[in-house]
Design a protein that fits this description.
By secondary structure, the protein is an alpha/beta fold. Helices cover 37% and strands 22% of the residues. The protein has a single domain (2-184), classed as 3-Layer(aba) Sandwich (Rossmann fold). It has helices spanning 21-33, 68-79, 112-121, 142-146, 154-175, 177-184, and strands at residues 2-6, 39-41, 44-51, 54-61, 86-92, 100-103, 127-132. The chain has a 7-stranded mixed sheet with strand order 2-3-4-1-5-7-6, sandwiched between helices. Helix 1 (21-33) packs across helix 5 (154-175).
């Protein structure tokens, strides 16, 4: 059994913002699996699916980004899912729009949702898919940037990146994270 969590913020005002690419990718994964992520459980929305004889739980924490770990730890503990079967998908300002990076461990990189997740799990040893949202130009406000929407040529790039991240997620389940890193870490939209 795998737990795939996409990080984001609940509410219409946050839909399609840079900070919600985790939610958008999880929606794409759910669509590929024919699943609905609509059961209220573990302080989030939960869906279930099967992929190549493997049960997959899809989770969108509704705790707001900074408390995402509360939802993840509740689901992991309830289902007794091992850390190596956790995949967390989230935005990363340190990667340009159109890039993705898969890792098996590491720090939060200053991402509050990952700070919460690592704190709640007492570990950083789990798979994560980081989706590039770029940094704001000049000295612009980073909060405004992550809560802002994509524009111009970024829109097509992020769509392609979300699609690749969804494919990479299922590739991890099928073939393992190391093969997924080899296959997808060079991706650039």
């Amino acid at each position: 059994m795998y737990l795939i969590a996409g990080l984001g913020n609940p509410g219409r005002e946050y839909e399609n913002t840079r900070h919600n690419v985790g939610f958008m990718t999880l929606d794409t994964v759910a669509e590929k699996l024919g699943a609905k992520v609509n059961k209220v459980k573990f302080k989030g929305l939960l869906g279930e699916a099967m992929h190549e004889k493997e049960k997959i739980l899809l989770l969108k924490p509704l705790t707001f980004m900074n408390l995402s770990g509360q939802s993840l730890v509740d689901a992991l503990n309830f289902y007794k899912i091992p850390m190596e079967h956790l995949i967390v998908i989230y935005d990363d300002m340190d990667l340009p729009v159109g890039r993705l990076r898969i890792r098996t461990e590491g720090s939060s990189g200053g991402h509050r949702g990952m700070d919460s997740t690592i704190y709640q799990l007492s570990s950083d040893k789990f798979s994560r898919i980081r989706i590039g949202i770029g940094r704001p130009e000049g000295q612009k406000d980073t909060v405004g940037h992550v809560l802002g929407k994509f524009y111009g040529d970024e829109i097509e790039k992020i769509r392609a990146t979300i699609e690749a991240a969804a494919e990479a997620t299922l590739f991890i389940v099928s073939h393992g994270v190391n093969m997924a890193m080899n296959q997808y870490n060079g991706f650039e939209a």
